[in-house]
Amino acid sequence: MKLTNTCGGGNPGKAPARLTAGLVLACLLAPGCDQLTHRQQQQQAEQHWNEVRAQVKHQLAAQQLQAGQVEDSVTTAQDALGLNPASVESYLLLCRALLEKGDLAAARRVLDTAEQMGVESAELAYMRGVIAERSRRLSDALEHYQRARALDPTDRDYLMAVAECLVALGSPEQARDRVLEAVDQFDRDGTLDTLVAEISMLLGDDEAAAAAFRRAMPLLGEHDLIAEEYGLLLVRMGRLTEAVSVLQPLAERRGREVSGLVTRGLARCYLELGHAELADTILGRRLRQCPEDATAWLLRARVAVARGDLPLIHRCAAEARRLAPGHPETHILHGYVCWRQGRLEEALRSLERSLQVSPDDVLAHCLIGQVLAEAGDARTAGAHWRRALQINPRSRWASAALNRLTEDPPAVGAAPQTGVSRTETADPPAGLAARTCREPWSRGPG
After folding, report:
1. 117-122 CB contacts, 8 Å cutoff, 24+ apart
2. What is the model's pTM?
3. 137 φ, ψ to 5°?
4. In which residue ranges of the chain is pLDDT below 50?
5. What is the DSSP letter of 6?
6. Closest by CA position to 268, among listed 37, 395, 438
7. Other beta carbons less than 10 A from residue 102's beta carbon
8. Torsion of CA 272, 277, 282, 287, to 10 degrees
9. Can you give the pLDDT at residue 1?
10. Which region, left, alpha or beta, applies to residue 17 given φ > 0 means left and ψ of -120 to 50 means alpha?
11. What are the pLDDT digits (tens) for 17-70?
12. Measured at the alpha carbon of residue 251, what is the angle toward residues 247 and 253, in degrees to the nearest 5?
């Protein structure tokens, strides 16, 4: 869930009150009529009658706005305010209609008039915040939202508006603290927990975000977008089994179009968990539906590497290069294919192009080292493996290759036996596949 925009769309005001029989009776049975002069009784009856007419006008204006008749709604709401200048609901409705027109200045003048008439409410303060936010006056918007919350601390929308405004002002920590302080004051339906999760992700606090999503999920029911966001967060965190439990139901739900993010995230989990065939199945289905998804082709190439399917690797690498020719992964995959086929010079050129785009790519350094070692250049190969270990001290491929190079230095003129051979498939796929869930990828279509 991306953070909701308080000022965008929707109904920033509350629903208008319905005309009741009691209002009509109040017009006919005004208290103390027997103690008033005829003139006073006449004025009182006229006031009540105007209030009744104002309510009728208000209801008509609300119906017009709902039907998209914005200009008519503005006119009718103005008529309602002319009959009853103390109606909070009519001020709100007129503001909503003017905002629908995009006339922020007129909406602001309406609220100024309400203030001059001594009309005040939490909803009017909230509406001032909406107008200020749309005008990009975020500090003023925050002040108005805080005023609305002070007038009515029981309305959750005002708390959320304050938090979202604080985030927009660059204070996400304060925003999260505000929500956490007040979350127990409201019924738990998952909304505030989701907001905490979103803010936590902005802060880079993935653990807190995952915990908040976990609290929200049972309360939200089948909320696919939130479930998708939670599942992809778990993928990024490396909590792959949990991620599968969240994403797999989304992929299997009938009547739902599965997004590319869900498909690719689930495939990455399957691959990292050792289920390459499942990953290949789901990616194959995705690519039949969306053959232009370059990221899916790159990912399927890694699945093919894990399965040792060189023809599929070659096909996927070719498609990825066609769709995303500048992506460093395409050069790595092409270099890997060339290395497996013994075309060392072409492999080296492709891998070096990858390093030009991404100079700190551990896998590219490892593969270049492998190619150079087979070509007999042990010294330069060792330099690339050492660089790989500087970038990632946990690189098993680079560490193993350097150990072999140290333990068994090559004879003069002989190719060193380091790293892995082209016929082995255990280590290179591990190096390639591990990047699937741990390194950033472009999202691609869908």
Report:
1. 117/85, 117/86, 119/86, 119/88, 119/91, 120/151, 121/88, 121/151, 122/147, 122/148, 122/149, 122/151, 122/152, 122/155, 122/158
2. 0.70
3. -100, 75
4. 1-33, 411-431, 433-446
5. T
6. 438
7. 10
8. 100
9. 39
10. beta
11. 444 444 444 444 444 445 567 676 666 767 777 677 878 878 887 888 888 888
12. 115
Residues 310 and 345 in one domain: no
- Is residue 54 within 8 A of residue 61, CB to CB? The reply is no
Asked whether residue 238 falls in the same domain as residue 308, the answer is yes
pLDDT the model gives residue 336? 87
Predicted confidence at residue 363, as pLDDT, reads 83
The tokens describing 83, both together, are 């009959």
CA 46 to chain centre: 55
| Same domain assignment for residues 366 and 321 | no
* Cα angle 203-5-137, degrees, rounded to a multiple of 5: 90
The answer to whether residues 290 and 310 belong to one domain is yes
Tell me, yes or no, whether 259 and 229 share the same domain: yes
Domain boundary among 293, 325, 357: 325
Provide the CATH number for the domain around residue 255.
1.25.40.10
- Contact present, 261 and 443 (Cβ < 8 Å): yes
| Domain final residue pick, 325, 348, 375 | 325
Q: How far apart are the first and last CA of the chain?
A: 15
Q: Give the C-alpha separation, 294 to 278, whole Å.
A: 19
pLDDT in the model for residue 438 = 36
In a domain, 288, yes or no: yes
Residue 184: the pLDDT is 87
Q: What is the largest CA-CA distance in the chain?
A: 122
Residue keyed to tokens 């999920």: 217
